[in-house]
Amino acid sequence: AGAETVKRAVQLDVAGRFQESLVCYQEGIDLLLQVVKATTDEAKKHRYRQKISEFTFLSDGKYHKQIRIEENATGFGYEKLFQEYLTEIVSEVWVEDPYIRQVHQASRYLLYNFLRFCEMLVKGPCKVKTIHLLTSYDEGSGRSQQMTALEEIKQSLSNYGVALNIDFSSSIHDREIRFNNGWMIKIGRGLDYFKKPQGRFSIGYCDFDLRPCHETTVDIFHTKHTKKM
After folding, report:
1. pLDDT tens digit string along 180-222?
2. SS3 for 86-117, per residue?
3. In sequence order, what are the beta bridge partners of 119?
4. Within the chain, which residue ranges are assigned CATH 1.20.58.80?
5. CATH architecture of 65-222
């Protein structure tokens, strides 16, 4: 019963129903503590205590999950990775990535990746109204192309009632994505974890779930005090 109560708490937390989730966390922890007191098996007691410690951490409004994407793995499109955390209360998104630039690069399609990410946000179920992008300027002649592409994305988003705020930094290094429901996702490679498609008419060119990935790590956090840029 304790495990089921905590499972319900996690579901409520993901949905942004924090007060209800806190009640469930506390009830679940109390039930597990009763089990620990009644258990004589020391190995089981140790496992239960570990779980209680983990759930107490969750009830504090903090959470960490890590996903390892292997080289050439498929099935990790943006929807697969982010949809669970894009609850209906999400209205504001922060994207921090130094390499949202260079459309025509041998191995990357970074501006197109950002566009795909924005398309996912527009489709919902969240009600995103504002996207904040912090990136770095492209170098040399690529800067004009970068600005033109970002302005086109900004204009297109406005047609869907979404404002895109763009800022640039010459010292940015971190890559992270934050939602105003408290979820933060850090991807080692940022949005650029997909491999170049074999051709414009090859499977995986349009559907990112079918596109092979580069090896990378995804860290997912939750805190009720997520910072803003």
Report:
1. 888 899 999 999 999 988 888 999 999 999 999 999 999 988 7
2. CCCCCCEEEEECCCCCCCCCCCCCHHHHHHHH
3. none
4. 1-61
5. 2-Layer Sandwich (3.30)
Listed in order, the ranges of the chain carrying CATH 3.30.870.30 are 65-222
Which amino acid appears at position 84 of this protein?
A: E
pLDDT of the residue at 116:
94
pLDDT for 123-132, tens place per residue?
Answer: 988 899 999 9
In the block, residue with structure tokens 């170049």: 196
Nearest one of 169, 103, 105 to 132, comparing CA atoms: 169
Dist CA 214 CA 153 (whole Å):
26
Eight-state DSSP code of residue 160 = T
pTM higher than 0.85, yes or no? Answer: no
Residue 66 main-chain phi, psi, to 5 deg: -120, 135
CATH number of 1-61: 1.20.58.80
